[in-house]
Amino acid sequence: MLRPVIVVLMLVSFTCGENPAVQVTLTNKGLQYGKHVGAGWIQDRLDLVTLPDISGTVLHYIHYTLSGVNITKCDFPEPSVEFYQDIAGFNTSSSGLSVAVTGRWTTHAGLIHDGGSFDMAIFNMDVTSVVKLGKDADGHLSVTSAHCEARVGNVDVRFQGGASWMFKPFVEHLKGRIKDKIEASICPVVEKSIVNVEYHLQAMNVSFDVGENFTFDFPLTGMPVIHASSLNLGLKGEFYNIKGHTEPPFEAQPFTVPEQPGYMLSVGLSEFTLNSASYVLYKAGLLQTVITDSMIPPYLHMHLNTSWMGPYIPQLPKMFPGLLMSLQVYARKVPMFSFQPGVVKLGFEGAVKAFAIQPNGTETPLFKLNVDSTHSGKVWIAGGRLKGSVTLDNLTVTLVSSEVGTFQTDTLEHSMKAGMILVFAKLNVELGKGIGLPGTKHAQLVNTVLGMEEGFIAISSDAMLL
Prior knowledge:
Elements: H1 3-12, E1 22-27, H2 28-45, E2 50-51, E3 54-58, E4 62-75, E5 80-84, E6 89-109, E7 112-135, E8 141-160, H3 171-203, E9 207-210, E10 214-217, E11 225-227, E12 230-235, E13 238-241, E14 265-270, H4 271-283, E15 288-292, H5 316-319, E16 324-331, E17 336-340, E18 343-357, E19 363-382, E20 385-402, H6 410-433, E21 435-436, E22 443-453, E23 456-465
């Protein structure tokens, strides 16, 4: 009966007192799907279950043991699972469970030993378990047993072989003893299963490395929140440099993911997560590159040399005739993403330092430009694939310093805009092809929709276990 709870916890395990940058919501639809899958899993594996031995005494000196108890038939009605607001957890119950089992019986009284087989039917078992959710100091999701109650309606047992006739006068007495022992053993088994789930949850990572230099941190930021029809988990969702755990100069802002009861799961991703990645890249000095002539795509029909730059800077080819050039491009500030309804905005404040490459390989500085641009992007899901597009909103080029004398940047700015538009056109072809939605070997997302909201992206989906 506990398996539905395990399935549900694994579905949401796809978080300290701070605003979460990632929110995960499990709806009642997802809870009921987890229950259904868990019930099927139990039904398929019941024939592999060996029940605990049952032992006792008859007439104070005849000791008996029922062992090797295997299930031969089971009537397993689908259990009930619901969110339980009072203790922030789940209330699970299974009613009317009936089981037929077979096994071996042995007795001994002093030096006298005997044995045989038995058949037993257990009727109308009812089990109720309340599981409380919480979080530990490290931000792991935790589960504990808050309540368990078990009742067995009736037991029928028949003994065969050996001196089984001697049991017949005591069958009614044995039925009561066996019924009591079964009732007493159910909740410890349930609670052991909950402890096992807790062990696996504590072993789950709340961060993972991204490449060699970065880590993504996603512990719980607060206690799980249970509503009548949903469970919400808030996760930190922040990127760090592995070499140093430095907080960015901005904070995650509160946001609320719209309820989507028609889907099993909803995930809200704040712009803070992307901006924390941008901050880490900037602080690590990775938002810079050197561009040479060999790197220019052929479709741009341009070259990076002093002759080609002549129309923009007339004095350049005269001062440095026939030389190749290199451009050092870097971000002056942290590029910041802004999520707005239907669109993603990105502001990039960059700089370009130009050099002439002398025949002996040395580089001579030529000029420095500030290049500031704003971009818009769209993201959507179609055909089970995540797709996107990006456009250039604006670009300005300003001369900061020059070793070759002053020059106007208007024509250069126009050419750079045209070049970026060509690059984005090529990029959008690839973005339009999309990438497959994330999944595991055990589950995949289906019927997935995506919406851009103020400050966050909301993704709602159903899940299908494979």
